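Lecture notes, part 5. Sequence design as translation. It can be helpful to think of inverse folding as translation between two languages: the language of shapes and the language of residues. The source text, in structure tokens, appears below.
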């Protein structure tokens, strides 16, 4: 078809539909749907079972489903254009394992790419292909797994209830909100939005990292937003995981625009949280409770905390410095290395161990040591405390 509208109740395709224009019917695809030179719109509910969506001459296929367009088996996206999900749910359903593969591009602009409870949708767009979330959402109550290229440029992501979105491929986050459960298992998860307050983990949303997350440049990650009563925005950096601040990026919580009265955030670090780059200051605001049981490493610049508690693990000053805007509570673990701490330290159960021989920890603030707190000096190590309680 070349332009115009094809109207009908249902279209069952086991061969090829090619052209542009509008198919105003429920399309059930078992073959190929090919757009050519312009946009081919599927304006109805329907399904695709082991089907192919292909694009010629930089054209586009648009799915505008009143309710849902169901996926079965493995569907392929190829060509130099894109498959746009503009309205309705494009979903894995019926407790099925299904996927989308190929070297084409999927753009989620207003609908949702999702999996129902008990179902799994695997996204594997490779080479020059990708999934680009610019509006709408990816998630729901099942499992959505990305093993290819994913660009998070807007909209919302995250599973609801026991549902989860899992990244095992390459994910770049420049805009948009984490509104549910997002799990990163990959070493290629990048936050890159300089000076922006448009990246949020919303109240009730959680980002869990078991791989590597890089926060690049001056990117800002915000915690907070509208959620259920008592809910918070949470980031969990698990044992063995790495969260790397490679510049002077920051994290803000609670009061960020447009959520000035939102709930605060929580960062639970059981892995490695490090500032490896940038000569300036990276700030973790006082509306984010940073709970450390892993390792906090300062290799460059200054890391500033507004609400810091350590019950185990360590803080390692290894070329960078620390600032605390409110007293840091050291209930366990260790402060070690060489550098400056600007702010007050309440050490009731931890160990202060200057080193990297020789070395000194300079505490420019009040240092309070409880009965279970300790200082251990290496041969060339020393603690310099400018004010002491």
């Amino acid at each position: 078809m070349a332009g115009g509208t094809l109207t009908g109740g249902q279209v069952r395709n086991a061969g090829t539909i090619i052209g542009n224009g509008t198919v105003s019917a429920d399309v059930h695809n078992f073959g190929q749907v090919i757009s050519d030179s312009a946009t081919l719109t599927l304006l109805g509910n329907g399904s695709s079972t082991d089907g192919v969506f292909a694009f010629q001459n930089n054209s586009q296929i648009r799915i505008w489903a009143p309710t849902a367009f169901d996926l079965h088996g493995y569907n392929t996206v190829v060509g130099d254009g894109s498959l746009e999900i503009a309205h309705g749910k494009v979903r894995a359903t019926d407790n099925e394992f299904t996927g989308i593969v190929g070297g084409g591009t999927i753009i989620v602009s207003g609908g949702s790419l999702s999996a129902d409870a008990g179902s799994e949708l695997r996204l594997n767009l490779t080479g020059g292909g990708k999934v680009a979330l610019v509006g709408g959402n990816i998630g729901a109550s099942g499992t959505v797994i990305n093993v290819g290229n994913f660009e998070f440029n807007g909209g919302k992501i995250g599973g609801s209830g026991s549902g989860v979105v899992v990244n095992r491929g390459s994910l770049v986050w420049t805009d948009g909100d984490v509104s549910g459960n997002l799990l990163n298992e990959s070493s290629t998860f990048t936050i890159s939005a300089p000076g922006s307050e448009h990246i949020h983990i919303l109240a009730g949303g959680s980002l869990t990292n078991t791989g590597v997350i890089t926060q690049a440049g001056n990117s800002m990650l915000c915690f907070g937003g509208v959620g259920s009563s008592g809910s918070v925005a949470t980031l969990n950096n698990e044992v063995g995981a790495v969260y790397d601040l490679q510049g002077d990026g920051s994290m803000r919580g609670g009061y960020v625009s447009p959520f000035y009265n939102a709930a605060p955030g929580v960062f639970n670090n059981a892995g490695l949280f490090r500032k490896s780059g940038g000569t300036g200051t990276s700030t973790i605001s006082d509306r984010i409770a940073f709970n450390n049981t892993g390792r906090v490493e300062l290799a460059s610049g200054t890391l500033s905390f507004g609400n810091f508690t350590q019950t185990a693990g360590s803080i390692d000053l290894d070329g960078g410095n620390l600032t605390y805007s409110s007293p840091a509570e050291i209930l366990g673990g260790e402060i070690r290395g060489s550098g400056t701490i600007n702010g007050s330290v309440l050490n009731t159960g931890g160990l202060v161990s200057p080193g990297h021989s020789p070395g000194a920890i300079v505490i420019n603030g009040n240092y309070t040591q409880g009965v279970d707190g300790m200082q251990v000096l290496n041969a060339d190590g020393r603690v310099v405390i400018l004010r002491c309680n």
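The translated text above is only one of many valid answers, since several sequences can fold into similar shapes. The mean pLDDT is 88.
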